[in-house]
Design brief:
Layout lengths: L2 H19 L9 E5 L6 E4 L15 E4 L4 E3 L6 H13 L5 E5 L2 H7 L13 H4 L5 E4 L9 H11 L4 E4 L3 E6 L2 H23 L19 H22 L6
Parallel strand pairs: 6-7
Antiparallel strand pairs: 1-2, 1-5, 2-3, 3-4, 5-8, 7-8
């Protein structure tokens, strides 16, 4: 295996452990994937049954969009294939796809239609300006390919998709960028839920300021890589072994 391929495994395993470390996970459920080809037909997936805090690079399976295990051992959870397969194939920046039921973002997804929006009330929320999609139709467990296709259509080319009553999906061109978006999305949702809990009116940031936070992809990628490297240093100290 080429070093670059191994580093992808190491980083995806690190992302899963970091999700557990920051309580963005839900036990053995949810899925992180990385497409190994441009078409998105083959991707790395965490085997079902492992707690995210124990995932190692060597644990990750290579699967195809039909759910066949091409390399590695373990169970490819059906909903992981149904959700991630279509997103890898259809999302223009969907090399890395992260799906979680993280608490604050999921809390917003549980609000009535039109009320579970990420509001422009903090600087952190502005980094997602005009790059969030909302799927307002909860249809149960995503155990059919058609459900994943519907999610992919709802997400379009946005970086974030809120799933009604369910959680979120984040897509990015790199593991570092996707994880940074996941991490800061939850922070923005946390601040919003806390602000809403006061019962006082929210203070939206003006339309004249929001567009300034759009774009700057190269700088965001650089910051995401620095952030991810720093987080891995924390793992090296507190939960080593993800790179085995």
């Amino acid at each position: 295996m080429a070093q670059t391929d191994w580093q992808i495994r190491v980083d995806l395993a690190a992302a899963m452990r970091l999700a557990a470390y920051h309580e963005l996970h839900e036990g053995i459920d949810n899925h992180f994937t990385y497409a190994l080809d441009e078409a998105g037909e083959r991707f790395l997936l965490n085997p079902f049954g492992l707690h995210w805090s124990e995932v190692k690079a060597s644990d990750l399976m290579e699967v195809d969009s039909e759910g066949r295990v091409l390399a590695g051992e373990g169970e490819a959870e059906e909903s992981a294939i149904c959700i991630h397969g279509p997103l890898h194939r259809r999302h223009p920046k969907g090399r890395c796809v992260l799906h979680t039921h993280m608490p604050y973002a999921t809390s917003l997804s549980a609000l009535a239609e039109g009320h579970g929006r990420l509001e422009p009330i903090t600087q952190t929320s502005l980094f997602f300006h005009d790059d969030v999609a909302y799927d307002e139709a909860y249809a149960g467990v995503a155990d059919r390919p058609e459900e994943g296709e519907r999610m992919a259509a709802a997400m379009g080319g946005k970086r974030v998709l809120f799933l009604a009553n369910h959680g979120v999906v984040v897509a990015g061109e790199s593991i570092a960028r996707a994880f940074a978006d996941l991490y800061f999305l939850e922070r923005a949702c946390q601040a919003q839920v806390l602000a809403m809990s006061t019962g006082r009116p929210l203070r939206p940031i003006g339309d004249n300021i929001r567009p300034a936070f759009v774009g700057h992809d190269e700088e965001r990628e650089r910051r995401a890589q620095l952030h991810f490297a720093a987080l891995k240093r924390i793992l090296d100290r507190d939960n080593p072994g993800y790179d085995a």
